[in-house]
Write a structure and sequence with these properties.
The chain is mainly beta and 173 residues long. The protein has one domain: Methylamine Dehydrogenase, Chain H (7 Propeller), CATH 2.130.10. Helix content is 0%, strand content 47%. It is built from no helices and 15 strands. The chain is globular.
Length: 173
Amino acid sequence: MAVCGNNVFWGGAPQTQRLTAALWVSRNEGETFLLLNGAFPGANSVAGLAFADDCLIGLALVQFRDNETHIFRSTDGGATWKDVLTYPVGGNNGPFKCTFARGPAKLATCIIGRELFNSVDAGQSWATPSKPPVSAAYSDLAYAGGRVLAAGYWGTIARSDPARSNDWEMRTR
């Protein structure tokens, strides 16, 4: 689920017998939802969604039958989506999450399985860490003061400043 502005909600839907993986959008604070079926043909599920503050740029983590997860990017408020990264994830094991830095920064970070990806151009291109942190099954992401924190199980936290470097450093709670 992703929130854009004060009244637009986005949700992902898994594949069913009648539908491919789809997006749902509400532009009236969740009163009604519109199904955007066919945004990701052949997909199994939409596993994660995020929108930048301007509500124009969005990211969707989409899983496919071939055990690949793709990052799709929208620059028109979710009307159209373009595949910008394909990552093989055996068995499609999560977590799957994306987040944007707040404000005018074009920083974005995604978790796909146990991998962390940074973007400094609002999701147009992606890089994995040159010095990856210890794989810790990260489950959540947050930006604070231009730095991104990835929280993992057992008290592990990785920190990065993607505007300066794609390196991550480990912290403990």
